[in-house]
Specification:
globular, 40 strands, Rossmann fold
């Protein structure tokens, strides 16, 4: 008990010291021209919190800095500029609109720091001569080109009409019509709502021309009124609107009529790539709201500022010369784009049956990217890789990916894999940022960065592997190895612990120093009951690794928990300051859960499945979605979304209850995007976690599920 008190006190003091150090670190301030809870402020605030929580940023001279926001209202931009200037900021985010930027450009230039705006007007950067103005989202022209490409390639329309509802939309309309003409699909006509024209007169003109597609630009309330009038008169064509996700547009239209409207944006919450999923989940957890494209752009901008502050030289120059960087919006390419452009990512979205947006196409620089989900022909079932207990698969997403000898870019390259190639995963590092595969007769490592690869399968079944000894660094450029011993925890497994059983937790320790280590102890306190566990180690040679078993009797409660694994508990081994500092930095994330049986299945439309094997079907896939075969009673025949709060890797037995939303009979296709995690209460009341692997809406669905015992 005394040792437990000492351990808890030492951990608490360590955390307190870390917090105080971060709080007292020098500060870089970033100005924000937005309302306190506006999308620029919210996106930037989330990024700043995550950066500071991770330890801040390290300047080129090794100094650790924290970030801080100075938020000023856009209602009086001269006053906002004065307030921000007085705060001594290093960069500014905002203002949001093209009009705000152009009307206040000379004033913004007086700040003499990089100003990053999400405004998409094509003329913004051309009007600036300071070379300190940057744009964080793709321009109107690129969005118009993406829409025109989608209409030409997917809808294959030959009669397209553009409609302009206000003068402010002129640049957007020109961008769309110019792009359509360059693609060989010129717009038949452009109708303009003028002061002398009534909206219903314009609607009558549209009906008379019988277009297959109309692309509408202007205020959301006018666009919604026009759309309702068109449908009331029986026009059957495709309605495209560049603000299709705007609440002012969507809230004015019923779900039945809203379904099928298309539009463009620079980022949508409907994106299913890993970077977008993580950002959306973090944002929802932070604010209890869904992020917008402006939030995503502000988040990306803050991350780019942080990266640039870590480089020597002027911030504006560093921003413009940053190499390709993965952002929430997609790949950010400041160096390639030039002249202040940070992103050229565009998404074409379609409004689903429940009002949410589905990304139907993504573009970068006007070039369409491969679809994020597998394309399945009508009537043809092409299942995605099916994870099984003895097989988890990694798929290469980038054109080429290096295979390395260890889990970081410091290791040598063994060879390369091409886009679309798949390999079975045989291991991973503790945070799953790298996975191990069999490669040319030896163990190779692949990064799981979302722009490089994607892993399919139950990660909890993948063993954690210790990293091989790092390559010897170059005396000129490498980080010197400690001249003393340096004990480092490099891995802990498993990541899933069974309830009501005693589990052996394997801790892998490496001596990364140049001297042998004498006797030492490894210890931790396991949540949720603070169960203390420790083990003595007789010693560890320089460069060697060893494993230690810590015993943990897990309770019956399920959930996701963390424990700090402490190396050299009693500081018996002589290490330098850096070596002592990393003795209590390893965080072990684990899920306590009941035993499960894992299965995978593909269901065609009208097919049913018995999840728990008791000769009674539980779910049926219909043309509209996934349904229980009987009404939800509260404890049986129920289904519900666990995403985005929980993922396949974090969902657990106690989460599958009616109070957590497992309380309905049907999940529609629009919500069944790949990666979506659901909970099910079967006909017998058994609990199931289900993950959508692929879907051809109305035709077939493939999912993996684990049935709790």
């Amino acid at each position: 008990m005394q040792r437990l008190r000492i351990l808890i006190l030492s951990i608490a003091l360590g955390i307190l010291t870390f917090s105080v150090n971060i709080a007292q670190a020098p500060t870089f301030r970033i100005g924000v021209i937005d309302e306190a809870r506006g999308p620029i402020a919210d996106g930037a605030r989330l990024a700043v919190q995550q950066i500071n929580d991770a330890g801040g940023i390290v300047g080129a001279d090794g100094t650790v800095f924290r970030l801080e926001l100075v938020i000023a209202s856009p209602n009086d931009i001269p006053a906002a500029v004065e307030q921000i200037n007085a705060a001594g900021v290093v960069a500014v985010l905002g203002p949001e609109t093209t009009e705000q930027v152009l009307n206040n450009l000379p004033l913004l230039q007086t700040l003499n720091v990089p100003v990053i705006t999400p405004a998409i007007g094509d003329t913004i950067l051309a009007s600036d001569a300071s070379e300190l103005l940057f744009r964080s989202r793709a321009t109107e022209f690129l969005q118009g080109r993406a829409l025109a490409t989608y209409i030409l390639e997917e809808i294959q329309a030959t009669n397209v009409l553009a409609v302009q509802l206000d003068i402010a939309s002129t640049a957007s309309v020109i961008g769309f019509t110019t792009a359509a003409t360059s693609l060989g699909n010129p717009v038949q006509d452009t109708l303009l709502l003028t002061d002398g024209t009534e909206l219903n007169d314009l609607t009558d003109q549209i009906i008379a021309t019988t277009p297959q597609v109309i692309a509408v630009y202007g205020p959301p309330d006018l666009a919604a009124t026009m759309y309702l009038d068109l449908r009331a008169q029986g026009w059957p064509g495709t309605f495209a609107y560049n603000q299709a996700e705007s609440p002012a547009f969507k809230d004015a239209i019923s779900l039945e009529l809203l379904f099928g409207v298309i539009g463009t944006t620079t980022w949508s919450v409907g994106a299913v790539d890993n970077a977008s999923r993580i950002f959306t989940l973090d944002y929802v957890r932070a604010y209890g709201e869904v992020p917008t494209a402006i939030d995503a752009a502000a988040y990306d901008s803050t991350r780019l500022i942080a990266l640039s502050l870590e480089l020597p030289g002027e911030l504006g120059v560093n921003l413009s010369q940053l190499g390709d960087t993965q952002g929430v919006q997609g790949l950010l390419r400041p160096t390639q784009l030039g002249r202040g452009e940070l992103s050229d990512n565009v998404a074409v979205i379609e409004i689903g049956s429940l009002g949410g947006a589905r990304v139907v196409a993504r573009f970068i620089g006007g070039v369409r990217l491969p679809d994020e989900t597998e394309v399945v022909g009508v009537g043809t079932i092409v299942p995605s890789p099916t994870p099984t207990p003895d097989g988890v698969v990694v798929t290469v997403r980038s054109q080429v990916q290096n295979v390395r000898t260890g889990p970081s870019t410091a290791y040598d390259v063994l060879g390369q894999l091409q886009q679309g190639e798949q390999r079975q995963v045989i291991g991973a590092n503790v945070d799953f940022s790298w996975v191990a595969i069999e490669f040319r007769g030896q163990t190779g490592w692949l990064s799981t960065a979302p722009n490089l690869s994607e892993v399919f399968g139950d990660r909890s079944l993948v063993p954690v592997l210790a990293a091989p000894p790092p390559p010897t660094p170059s005396p000129a450029t490498g980080t010197p190895i400690s001249s003393l011993a340096d004990l480092v925890v490099v891995g802990v497994s498993p990541n899933v612990i069974t309830t009501n059983t005693t589990n052996n937790i394997t801790v892998t320790i490496q001596n990364t120093g140049s001297q042998n280590a004498g006797p030492f102890a490894i210890a931790t306190s396991f949540a949720p009951n603070n169960t203390y566990a420790a083990q003595n180690v007789s010693g560890l040679a320089a460069g060697a690794t060893t494993t230690v078993l810590l015993s943990f009797a897990a309770p019956g409660t399920t959930g996701n928990f963390q424990a700090i694994i402490i190396a050299d508990l009693n500081q018996q081994v002589q290490e330098d300051s850096a070596g002592e500092a990393n003795n209590n930095t390893f965080v072990y994330n684990y899920r306590i859960d009941r035993p499960t049986v894992l299965n995978a299945v593909t269901l065609a439309a009208s097919a049913s499945i018995d999840l728990d094997g008791n000769a009674a079907n539980d779910l049926t896939y219909t043309p509209t979605g996934l349904n229980t075969v009987a009404p939800c009673s509260g404890t049986t025949f129920c289904i519900g979304l666990l995403s985005p709060t929980l993922t396949w890797d974090t969902a657990h037995y106690d989460a599958i209850t009616g109070s957590n939303g497992i309380s309905t009979n049907s999940i529609l296709n629009a919500s069944l995007t790949p990666g979506t995690t659901l909970g099910v209460l079967t006909n017998a009341g058994n609990r199931v976690v289900l993950r959508v692997d692929s879907i051809n809406p109305g035709i077939s669905i493939t999912f993996t599920y684990r049935l709790y015992q």
